[in-house]
Amino acid sequence: MGDLKIGLEIHGYLNMTNTKKLFCNCKIVHEAEPNTNICPICTSQPGSKPMLPNKEAVEKIIAVGLMLGCKINNKLLFQRKHYSWPDLPSGYQRTMSGSFGLPVGVNGDFLGIGIEEVHLEEDPARWDPLTGNVDYNRSGFPLVEIVTKPDFKSAEEVKHWLKTLLTTLSYIRAVDKKAGIKSDVNVSIAPRYVRTEVKNVNSISNIVKAINYEEQRQRREHKNIQQTRTYDDNSGETIFMRSKETAQDYMFIPEPDLPVIKVDEGLVKEIASKLPEKPSEKYKKYLCLGIDEVDAKTISSELVLAELFEKVIKEINPVFASRWFRRDVIAAINDNNMDYDDVNIDVSYLIDWFLLLEKKEVSPVVLKELLSKFIKENFNIKEYVKQHSLESVSDDLELKKLCQEAIKEKQAAVDDFKKGNEKALNAVVGQVMAKTKGKATPDKVNRIIKELIK
Ligand SMILES: [Zn+2]
After folding, report:
1. Based on the domain organization, do 34 and 60 belong to the same domain?
2. From the CA of 44, how far away is ligand 1's center (Å)?
3. How far is the CA of 137 from the centre of ligand 1 (A)?
4. 93 and 51: one domain?
């Protein structure tokens, strides 16, 4: 161990608000009837020329570069990367990487891992080798590629880093999460560090498996050569494809149909000024407020959640709020099968919910149910509580009467409790909670019952 070097080339689909392809006006739709979102440009018809690159795609990539600590180049250049494959009727892919590359971002650092470059390229079509059919719908989808330096030392390190990377990119909604990522994984071991590239590994768990397999294979086969391999999902093995291609094999030339794109310094500053805090920064900030590590990690993993939380803690104690946020706010969102982006609630009502909880004006059981309804429907929680008389039963006499009834009804549990089984009392408390329809405070019921059976 300690003699492993791993580098990644990560590809993801850009999440485009204008839903247009990179060099034409065709729509980006991931699940569509084959060949329904195409035109002469994205199918490379003779005589067709690309439109200027989609401005939003360029701006998104600049934002990605900035989030990863890159220097942003003031000139960008697309090149033609030539190769012959049925998914590429023109015989070349337009990309910013390669021999004459002027990528968007260079020399970054993200959590201690060097970022070689961040750039933009177009997706080729989808070829089905079994039928020979080609679907051009995805030809020209804008892709982000993030190339790291070979700074990773283990598969575990790659796993954690990738998870944080995806969370960070989700903060700027840069990558289409549903479409997932693909990565080329470079693995080499000491002393010769002969580079092997495993192409197109399609999930974090498969990336981990591919790295582990490669490490063992290279330790076993001493005469490793520079090569390109593929990962087989079924066997969990990597398989030899070809000896490694070089830049010369791709015959890069600058794309003659596109001008050099100038990136104005003002634009970079404007994009930088709109970037959110990174998840890692939020995490540290929460720890400084005294919030538990797990709570801080969970809340900072989703921007919607983090932003909501930060508004709530302007009025509510952060540590108190964080516990309920991590468990119950998330549970309420999940119960309704909602995406975080669909949560559209009035923060002042949510703050009311926390105040009711804090002052114990409504029992936690009732409040939890209410939260699940509120997250979906967004209503004035205080008024709802009044209208439906959901305030806690705090009238001691009434509660005492209900406790006495419950003790009679659950005599066996009371006897068990007296014999030393602490948990037996839960059945009696539960009986009272049911009688009040959850409107009593369990702590208080517990106390009264103990008084009564003393
Ligand atoms: Zn098109």
Report:
1. yes
2. 9
3. 8
4. yes
Record the pTM: 0.79
Are 297 and 267 within one domain?
Answer: no
Q: Which residues are in the CB-under-5-Å shell of ion ligand 1?
A: 24, 26, 39, 41-42
Which tokens sit at 30?
């991931």
Terminal-residue alpha carbon distance, the chain: 63
How far, in Å, from the CA of 135 to the mean position of ligand 1? 12
DSSP code of residue 6:
E
Residue 37 CA, ligand 1 centroid: distance in Å: 7
Ligand 1 geometric centre to CA of 103 (Å): 24
Ligand 1 centre distance from Cα of residue 140 (Å): 7
What digits encode the pLDDT tens for the residues 366-398?
899 999 999 999 999 999 988 887 887 767 778
Give the distance (Å) from ligand 1 centre to CA of residue 253: 23
**44 lies in the same domain as 161:** yes
Distance from residue 426's CA to the centre of ligand 1 (Å): 65
The closest alpha carbon to 341, from 374, 303, 370, 380, belongs to 303
- 272, 295, 328 - which closes a domain: 272
Last residue of a domain, one of 272, 299, 323: 272
Positive or negative: CA dihedral 185, 204, 99, 125: positive
Residues 136 and 89 in one domain: yes
Q: How confident is the model over 134-155, as a mean pLDDT?
A: 96
Statement to judge: residues 146 and 53 lie in one domain: yes
Q: Say which range, 175-179, 240-244, 330-334, has the weakest mean pLDDT.
A: 240-244
Cα angle 377, 378, 383; round to 5: 110
User: Which domain range does residue 29 map to?
Assistant: 4-272
